[in-house]
Design a protein that fits this description.
Elements (H helix, E strand, L loop, with lengths): L6 E2 L11 E4 L8 E7 H6 L1 H13 L3 E7 L4 H15 L1 E7 L4 E5 L17 H4 L1 E2 L2 H4 L5 E7 L5 E6 L12 E5 L5 H20 L7 E5 L8 H4 L2 H8 L10 E5 L7 H10 L5 E5 L1 E3 L2 E3 L9 H22 L4 H12 L12 H12 L2 E3 L3 H4 L5 E5 L12 H6 L7 E5 L14 H5 L3 H5 L7 E5 L21 H9 L4 H13 L5 H11 L3 H11 L6 H9 L5 H14 L5 H10 L4 H10 L5 H14 L6 H27 L5 H9 L10 H8 L6 H11 L8 H14 L5 H15 L4
Parallel strand pairs: 3-4, 3-5, 5-10, 6-9, 10-19, 11-12, 11-13, 13-17, 17-18
Antiparallel strand pairs: 1-8, 2-4, 6-7, 8-9, 14-15, 15-16, 18-19
Length: about 725
């Protein structure tokens, strides 16, 4: 691995003994909580920290204060693990300047992050993640401490570590966005409002959901089902005209930012959901407003051209003149389109127009957001390695926002960001909810102990119960859908012996969209026929997201028996953009000739198609595009004469496209000592993405055989092969 000179090496590999203090809880409770704080923040905010601690203890969690001058994340992790073992630690919050673990060689634990760790600097290609602190089973190998950003600590996920996240505790971060006394003032003000909100009775009965441009391919078929899932998760919000509001970017094209700003300012909103694109400093709400006449479209197009020309030299190797020449040749534009690019007045106008399409850091203190909990289903809005970032500005803006759930790197669009969110309606803590749906990049920014008021007439199931009979009673009892889904997670965690059959049966019988989705998630970990059978049923499920993901997973499993179901789904759901895309994207994971033949017959029989030739041509175009990627990846595996750089590039594609058909050739490369070590490392890592593949057992057997037959295998390659074995084993219960 290439480590830039700015990183301190050997001496920082040695853990330093930190001076730390432990202040014990003031009361005995069954479970405990820990406030981890640096000494300077404790000294500057002691009164507010003590009051926050008292408020948490009033809710039944004895609370430790762990303070110190922290020299490494290991020191904190050791303390938390010790409290977990000895005093039933339930969760923690990292307050102030707390070391940030930067995780590498663990991209399979992310939803989408695939940045090249060799090509890009470590501070960009690592994932800031507190899974280091809250999953004690994960094992890490220390690399270095950043000598510039001294609170960044780099780790590789170890090969001997579990390759799946199962958090032991929950955690949150309260990291100020300002320095020095201004930052301490932020923390004091924030903790004061947390205490005030904890003392107020507030049921979760007001929710707002916003879907920005580009989310889910702007598909209404994908968007509409959120009304159903949120009714299952936040039923009280559907008892009042102001209880549940749903917005999509095109509803108010001229002023959607104003509409969302007004919703954020509402004092009664409990939960706000953002499905959008994002960066650390921006929420992308919409694009250019659609025009109502030719002049409007023309003006919008010219603005886009100006933006492109201003950025071209920064983003590419082209000069401004070359970019203009390209636009003239390819689109027939004339010089009028290029006027105003460097004009200061025009730049200001364009900048103001651009600001209307999103929420930026500077907007948030002016908005003063009030939703108590905000979910950012977006990239980078929760990137706490930055000094200032969207989620941080939300909690410190002075409104009533207590906790945000966001992501520190980019995330997959086609994921369910609100699994088990109904736990919030029942009165569970934010941390108790997110503990079961964490990915490497997802984090609570703010107080993880915050909870809405629960219905005092109903007892909540004990989330710490460890008896399968107890959770079977919850599953079969009169409980909300997500509490029944929590029971499934608990039974999975406790390794209930009939779990595979239970998940299959529950999927077939449950009336709840959200519960059926959890069955599909969990059943993937079992190595029997139930998962394949469930997927066949799932392609006709009323929940679009289940249908969409079932098609995607069929491709990952790679059994040709799925082809008739995929063909039928493509014809039936062609107007659902995400489903149609997944069919054509996944078809080449199966036998493409068989798929083509069956699709062709189905089109011939489909009398309802207005223009069969056009439909067939479009389908063929998409299939051909996907199939060409399969051919390129296959060529990279078998063509030893191809340039190494080209071979490595296409083998990296297997992480997003783990073609089951290519596994035998990939294993051949892996076992061949004459192949370049870097290439074999790439193949070993790529095979770890075959978690759902029908031949994953053979991949594991072959990997074990390679290690046994080649005892002199390079240590780094042996480590990567071991990691792949452990990753696949997690999906073969």
């Amino acid at each position: 691995m290439r480590i830039p000179l700015l990183f301190i090496a050997v001496m920082l590999c040695l853990p330093l003994k930190a001076q730390h203090n432990v202040i014990n809880p003031t009361r005995r409770t069954d479970h405990t909580f820990a406030i981890v704080v640096d000494e300077q923040t404790l000294e500057a905010c002691r009164t507010q920290i003590d009051r926050y601690r008292q408020a948490v203890e009033n809710e039944g969690l004895g609370t430790y204060i762990l303070s110190g001058t922290w020299h490494s994340p290991e020191q904190i992790r050791t303390l938390l693990k010790d409290l977990y073992t000895k005093d039933n630690l339930e969760g923690s919050v990292f307050l102030g300047d707390i070391p940030i673990p930067m995780i590498r060689r663990a991209q399979h634990l992310c939803s989408a992050f695939k940045m090249d760790e060799e090509l890009f600097p470590m501070n960009e290609s690592s994932v800031p993640s507190d899974r280091f602190y809250d999953d004690f089973d994960l094992c890490f190998d220390f690399i270095a401490r950043d000598s510039v950003h001294t609170n960044f600590f780099y780790y590789n996920l170890s090969a001997v570590s579990p390759q799946i996240i199962t958090c032991d505790i929950y955690s949150g971060r309260i990291k100020p966005t300002l320095k020095g006394e201004e930052g301490y003032a932020q923390i004091r003000q924030y903790l004061q409002k947390v205490v005030a909100e904890k003392e107020a009775a507030n049921h979760l009965d007001r929710v707002v959901s916003y879907t920005g441009e580009g989310s889910f391919s702007n598909s209404l078929a994908a968007w509409k089902d959120e009304t159903v899932t949120l009714r299952e998760q936040v039923p009280a919000a559907f008892n009042h005209a102001d209880g549940a509001r749903f917005y999509m970017f095109f509803m108010y094209p001229e002023n959607i930012k104003d509409v969302i700003t007004d919703e954020l300012r509402r004092p009664d909103v409990d939960l706000m959901l953002f499905h959008e694109h994002g960066t650390p400093d921006r929420q992308y709400l919409t694009g250019a407003a659609p025009g109502t006449d030719e002049d409007t479209y023309y003006a919008s197009a010219r603005q886009k051209v100006r933006e492109y020309l201003r950025s071209v030299e920064r983003r590419s190797t082209m000069t401004r003149a070359e970019a203009e020449e390209k636009l003239v040749k390819e689109y027939g534009l004339d010089s009028v389109w290029f006027t105003g690019v460097d004009d200061p007045e025009q730049k200001v106008k364009d900048s103001l127009t651009d600001l209307r399409t999103g929420i930026v850091l500077e907007d948030i203190p002016q908005i003063v957001p009030n939703p108590r909990v905000v979910v950012f289903d977006a990239c980078y809005n929760g990137d706490f390695r930055e000094d200032r970032y969207i989620a941080g500005n939300y909690i410190f803006a002075g409104g009533k926002t207590i906790a945000c759930f966001g992501n520190s790197v980019n995330v997959l669009q086609d994921k369910s960001a609100t699994d088990l969110m109904g736990l919030l309606s029942c009165g569970y803590r934010v941390g108790e909810w997110t503990k079961y749906i964490n990915i490497l990049e997802s984090h609570i920014i703010g107080d993880p102990t915050y909870r809405f008021t629960h219905d005092a007439t109903r007892d909540l199931p004990d989330i710490h119960a460890a008896d399968t009979g107890y959770w079977m009673d919850v599953l079969k009892g009169d409980f909300p859908a997500d509490l029944q889904s929590l029971a499934l997670y608990k039974l999975f965690e406790l390794e209930y012996p009939q779990m595979s059959s239970l998940l299959h049966e529950t999927f077939l019988t449950s009336p709840h969209y959200t519960q059926r989705l959890q069955c599909m998630h969990l059943l993937a970990h079992y190595n029997d026929s139930n998962y394949a059978t469930l997927l066949k049923h799932a392609v006709t499920d009323p929940y679009e997201f289940i249908r969409r993901k079932a098609i995607y997973y069929m491709g990952r499993v790679g059994r040709n028996e799925f082809i008739p179901y995929m063909v039928e789904s493509y014809l039936r759901d062609n107007m659902a953009e995400r489903i149609a895309f997944n069919v054509t994207f996944s078809a080449h994971h199966l036998s493409t000739p068989v798929f083509r033949k069956m699709l062709d017959k189905a089109i011939d029989k489909a009398d309802y198609l207005y223009n069969k030739d056009s439909f067939r041509e479009e389908s063929e175009r998409m299939i051909n595009s996907a199939e060409s990627m399969l051919a390129s990846c296959w060529s990279a595996l078998i063509d030893k004469n191809a340039p190494l750089r080209t071979r490595r590039m296409y083998i990296s594609v297997l992480r997003n496209n783990p073609f089951p058909l290519l596994a035998p050739d990939a294993l051949q490369v892996l076992s061949d000592p004459s192949e370049p070590l870097a290439l074999r490392m790439d193949v070993a890592e790529a095979l770890g993405w075959y978690v759902r593949s029908f031949n994953r057992e053979e991949i594991v057997r072959s990997c074990k055989r390679i290690l046994a037959d080649h005892p002199q295998t390079e240590p780094e390659l042996a480590s990567e092969i071991t990691k792949t074995i452990n990753r696949l084993n997690a999906y073969m219960r």
